[in-house]
Amino acid sequence: MRIGLVGTGRIGAFHAATLKSLAAVEQVVVTDVEASRAELVAKDLGLEFAASVDDLLASGIDGFVIAAATSAHAALIEQAVAAGIPTFCEKPVAIDLGETQRIVELVEGSDVPVHIGFQRRFDAGYRSAQEQVASGELGFIHHIRANTNDAFPPPREYIPTSGGFFRDCTVHDFDIIRFVTGREVASVFATGANRGESFFGEYGDIDAAAALLTLDDSTFVAVSGTRYNAAGHDVRMEVLGSLGSIAVGLDEHTALRSAEPGVTFPGGQSHSTFMDRFQPAYVAELTAFTEVVAGTRAVPCTVRDALQAFRIADACELSRRENRVVSLEEIGR
Predict the structure, then answer these.
(1) Rounded CA gap, 204 and 211, in Å?
(2) What is the pLDDT of residues 279-322, one digit of tens each?
(3) Which of 119, 175, 295, 328 is the most exposed place for a label (fewest CB within 10 A)?
(4) Which CATH superfamily is domain 2-119+283-301 in?
(5) What is the C-alpha to C-alpha distance for residues 12 and 34, in angstroms, rounded to an integer?
(6) Which ranges in the chain are annotated with CATH 3.40.50.720?
């Protein structure tokens, strides 16, 4: 099959290389608003180049991958739906809740499959956790702890269009909590601070946050994150049940060191980026997309899944700003 890709920045170029490596993909066609960047990626990877999105969509592609800037996602999904082309889009669906809801209605009113990129759903550890929770072998789940700690902050210019810490960073935790537990979030209480570079605060953002989520079955979930974790990119989840407890992301690469005398675990090299941490998951995710394109698999992460994660992020931002518990019923469906 031929897969078209728009957006050849860091994650886009990474996806292009991954797609090229897949057995089901015969050719990848790339484009970008910065044509020279797309041409360079095409040359480096041996791909086809299209001068524009319109040219790309008209070039006979079987599937469309959106890795462009967040602000372009909604319009690109609209174009793909109009063209009837199965689409993969990096999160989020859109820059705000209202636009996200509009795109959800558009996609659900069509027969075009749209797969949203939350790669943790394809990570072996998280999938194992989901299976153990669903099977009941952990008993009832009473607490979950989840964290996303970036090794280093994004550049200043990224922050104004990022959507803020909860919508950009911990939204991955919100999605995977729903995936692992099969439950919905009922309420949140969140806080955050600007501990590092002042540019976060200049744009009304934060670089460290914590939130307590209460699920609809009264499970408590503590979520935390930071843009400053020089020990390494650290993404983990602890699931504590009445019959057993498990941890995702606890291995030789975990960016923690024990303070206990004589303990050497974990002793391996920590991950430096999210692409390093989740490389196998990205391969599995895009392989799943080729199966969606082929019509042999249902969409594994829908636009409505993305909407639900976005609602939780919006609730956390409202809670942080107003210093109160926020019910998810307050946030538009």
Answers:
(1) 18
(2) 999 999 999 999 999 999 999 999 999 999 999 999 999 999 99
(3) 295
(4) NAD(P)-binding Rossmann-like Domain (3.40.50.720)
(5) 13
(6) 2-119+283-301
